[in-house]
Amino acid sequence: MLPGGGRNACNEMQRMLIVRSLGQDRVAFCVTSFIVSNLGSRFIEPPVLNMKSRTLPPRSPLVFILSPGVDPTSALLQLAEHTGMAHRFHALSLGQGQAPHCCRLLREGVNQGHWVFLANCHLSLSWMPNLDKLVEQLQVEDPHPSFRLWLSSSPHPDFPISILQASIKMTTEPPKGRRLYQLMTEAQFTRCSKPAKYKELLFALCFFHSILLERKKFLQLGWNIIYGFNDSDFEVSENLLSLYLDEYEETPWDALKYLIAGVNYGGHVTDDWDRRLLTTYINDYFSDLSLTTPSYRLSVLDTYYIPKDGSLASYKEYISMLPSMDPPEAFGQHPNADVASQITEARTLFETLLSLQPQITPTRIGGQSREEKVLELAADVKQKIPEMIDYEGTRKLLALDPSPLNVVLLQEIQRYNKLMRTILLSLTDLEKGIQGLIVMSTSLEEIFNCIFDAHVPPLWGKVYPSQKPLASWTRDLAVRVEQFETWASRARPPVLFWLSGFTFPTGFLTAVLQSAARQNNISVDSLSWEFIVSTVDDSNLVYPPKDGVWVRGLYLEGAGWDRKNSCLVEAEPMQLVCLMPTIHFRPAESRKKSAKGMYSCPCYYYPNRAGSADRASFVIGIDLRSGAMTSDHWIKRGTALLMSLDS
């Protein structure tokens, strides 16, 4: 409810604007109710497509738009059997050299009334124009009334639009893990010779599968990379479980955990920190305790536990009693994780809406035209770009001291100067292009659209990755350049290093290790890091440490920090990130593995933890004291350090 008399004074649109300004995580709910009251509820409920009906037109292809963990093949086979088309159903997975088979199947299908299923069209994009022509022909000729063309493809910008326009499109959401029990038969449930043990571990496996599938709703706090875990992973693991329990008297925990989490589900996982999370979950659910403890709890909530030995119906009944929307705590997450993902979803919604804006503005009646707006923004950005740093002067000044840190400084100056030259040049060209003095090239057109939408043009974003909008990115650039300008003018390193300001922080950290190795006359390979979080205010840190460096400006996501006891604590409600105190990065010789009570916290360059194709986001693992909780608790929380935020 809006405070005071605001509720009566505002219409629905104005209400949404207030929510948009004050609570981005609630925008989706506002938009939903706005659509329901203005357009009707059918616009928010997915339509039911009855594929069994004979009304599907033979001329329209049916396209399955794939999402991770979904394979429509088995559902399609079942449908073919139901409708008596199994003997006339032909499936082909597209790829290299499959084009001639495709054409033959389609020709036969059109004439003889077959069902043709072409799977994974995104893997054969070069052949798509040919398919486009075949679909075009379908519209004019008269195919057999039983003919159906089914296609499946992951979303791809190069997929022909005309095929999409002519087709019926379906997308299936990845299945929820809990429906595995609905599909389970009595034979599957009772097939093991050790029924009590098997039923309990089967339930734990089912819960494990559901958690892995549904954790992706937390976006970056869920998985670094979204994986396509699917039903066949569960089936193989279920067979392994039954086989190993039949074979061995003692439960072979290590073998089961390795085969299920390491090989089977782990086969999808390519990120080391995601693998650590997977291992943490399986260790929780597959242990002697899960068999010996009655109603063994699978999360911090009392709702989720392994039910006592019973019939399949009793397990299904227990599952039906669980909440339809699993709270974050079921995954070992903090309620803030929901808020963070809802804010990201709201941002995606706005970006999509912006991208649908008409590209050509009508003749204006008051207000600015698109071109005037971009010219104004471009002039503003140009004015905020700092002066170039004197590279030659700095190089001469530091010529007598070729220390690793000075080498890093010169490299950073070169990169930032090149970036600022690129920005100024492209803005000057853009102004000329808008005024009609030069031709607007494709790259200038792209910069024009990015500036209008307040995004950073891809050409400028090549030097270092960032998710900030244009205005805060420009301010951030000025602060980054200032750090190196000050360092260069004083010809001595700062006391506190702002690590996020480096385009390549790993290069800087390696330089610090090299300096320490030279100082102590030892091999750089024998050094690793020790991390001491400062308990005093930055104003008290006036001298550099004897060895190593002070690093400031890191943000902690997925936890809070207790300055007094110098350890991790739960984040406050709605506190999505908190600024970390300065950390002393100290080179140490042959450090032992992480001590007990420590959490190895990954540090990422920017909020997109997976990074991009050209550059990883992960920089370094930093050991932090885990406080009252175990390190497993923070692993499930997705706790990490970020060098920069997206705002």
TrEMBL record:
Which parts of the sequence belong to the Dynein heavy chain region D6 P-loop domain?
A: 58-171
Q: Where is the Dynein heavy chain AAA lid domain?
A: 198-337
* Residue ranges occupied by any Dynein heavy chain C-terminal domain in the UniProt entry: 344-643
InterPro entries on file: AAA_lid_11, AAA_lid_11_sf, DHC, Dynein_C, Dynein_C_barrel, Dynein_heavy_D6_P-loop, P-loop_NTPase
Q: What is this protein called?
A: Dynein axonemal heavy chain 2
Give the originating organism: Apodemus speciosus (Large Japanese field mouse)
Instruction: State the taxonomy lineage.
Output: Eukaryota, Metazoa, Chordata, Craniata, Vertebrata
